[in-house]
Amino acid sequence: MSTNSKTPSPTEDKPTGEPRRNPSELPQACRWVSYEIWMLYETAKLLAMAKERTPLANALLESVLLHTRALFEFFDPRQVRPNSVLAQDFFPVTWTRPHWKGKGGLRDRIHWHLAHITDERSREGDSKVGWNITEIVDLFDDPIERFREMVNRALPDDPWTPPIRPSFSPDDWMTLYGTSTCAASSEPPGCSPQKVRTCVIDPKRGGSGGSGDDGER
Prior knowledge:
- There is one protein chain.
- The protein contains eight helices and no strands.
- The radius of gyration is 21 Å and the shape is globular.
- By secondary structure, the protein is an all-alpha fold.
C-alpha cells in the first residue's frame, strides 16, 4: 500500500472527485445497504424481546453493533479501500457526511469492544459498557433518508425503499438489563476472571472436569 494514499478525514464534509462506481452498480449497492439496515432493525427488535442475559442475547447485541459499524462506514468512511461500497461512490459532490448528533465516538467503542481485542476491554469491562440501542437506531434516520432521496432522483424508474424502521423506547431494554442501555455478559460460566486460563468444565454440562491449565492450545 502506498504511503502517499490519502485517507478521508472523518470530519471532511464533502467527498470530491469523480464517481468511483458506475451508476449501474447503484441498485446492487441499495440491496446491500437494505440488508444492513434490515438486520440492524430486526436484531434490535429480537434483543428487546429477550428475557435473559444469555449468549444468544450477547449475539443479538453484537449483531446490532456489527451492522451499525457497517452503516457507519457506508455513510461516513474513515478509510476508502478499493473494494469498499460507499454512499459517496455514487454521489461524490452532493453527498455530505453525517454529523452523528455528537455520537461519532460510538464507532471507536465498537472498534475497541467488538471488532478487536483491545486494552479498553479490560480497562472498562465489557459488562459495564452500555449501548443505547434507541440512540443507535436514531442516528441513521437522517443519512438513510438522504440516501433514499438521492437514489430515487438518480433512478426514478427503479426507486429504492429502505426497510421500515421500528419504534423503540428506552423502556424496551428495562426487562433484560434493568436500564435503558444494553451490556454484554462477558464472563463465560466456570472461567475465573483472576485466572483466565482456569476454565473448569462442569461435568453436568457434558464435559470432563479439569483445570484447563495443561499447556497452550
